Amino acid sequence: MTDQIVRPDGTGFHLAGGELSVTDPDARTAHSTPPVDVSVTAGLFGNADVDLTLASWSRTRTDDPDSVQPEEGRLVLPLRTQPVMLNSLPSKVRVQLRTGADHHETDGAWQLALHFRNQAGSSLTWHADLPLEAFGAGWLAPLADLLTIDDAQAVAQSSSSPTLTLVHHADDEYYELLVDGQQAGLLVYHLIGSHLSITHTVIEPTYRGRGLSWELVGRALDDIRTRSVTVSNYCAVVSRFLGKNPQYADVLGAPRP
């Protein structure tokens, strides 16, 4: 494998929309608003004690009654979202639904999608089939594990060694791993002054199982090593990598000249 570092311009990922959908065999003829309230909340880095509502829908919503759309056996409800930066979110978000008595609380019947975009044209989608825990007290849903890279194209694994390219989007605050020129993963961080916080590692599902998350983490940490910053880690993937690779332990801690 060969690795390269490219440094393009761009902007960070922010929450730019979302939708809640429910399986409904009568969706094609449905015209009324489903009796459901939904909220997606999370604490922010630096202010974890205060929950921010990232996305929501209310059964009392009346500003756009035609926004509920029947679509091939399901109903789709567009969510109100806040333009929160992905790199400011923790590893889990809380999803909570309350439904009317005539809507079944069933695993997989309800799906939730959140869309993150940047001004450079890249986008990510977070998609979850909601479990029963989402009804009532709420479900603590993993963020990075359910993110996919939109328009990513998988390349069949071959016996030859693929070319890995590490792209550092410094303005966007993330590293991108390309496999033979195709998007395979992201490592997202947040930089405030001279302190860098690693928040999420995302590997496109079609590329999982190839050891690429550690390739991405190792190359990103090699680059971070060259900076005069202190580093904190909030990403479980990076924690596992550091546990197996003690030679990178020096990356966390005091700034390097």
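[next item in queue]
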Amino acid sequence: MSRIIAGAAGGISLASVPGDRTRPTTDRVKEALFSRLDSYGMLAGARVLDLFAGSGALGVESASRGAAEVDLVELSEKAAGVCRKNAALVNKALGRTVVRVTRTGVLQFLDRLHSHDRWDLVLMDPPYPLPEAELAEVLGTVAPRLAAGGVVVVERSSRSPEPRWPAGLERFAEKKYGETMLWYAEPVQAAG
């Protein structure tokens, strides 16, 4: 069973998506990811977007660690239901609504946004079988939605190739944890 590792909701057990169609991020990977994000000062007051949210574990961890707003986006009804349960647990622990859940496809969600919507942190843990071209399309749609100084984190199988970063995003770090690879990207800084 997954849990919130740290922050205001630390220690709370999270619901998991039944079956084998989702692949939860291990506590080891989650702890390493959030340790790095904390060292970047990415979480306090951040707007966080968790795409392909699964159980929502990454997004609700962000909320527990001080994010101001978290959007979980998940297409599967079963997984979105688990996201709603986990969001309710964390929102209750925080005493306010920080985490929202939207059941829709990632591209549909991004296409419906206002042009001024920006996120400080975008977490993406797509299904491993997601074709690289679809991942590249999502990254291309996310890139202009990233705030200055923002970060995108993509979790993939360590056997998957590096994501094709669109214009406007560049990789600045990567880390392998067994079968899991985390890729970190940031907006390209304009020369000047």
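[queue empty]
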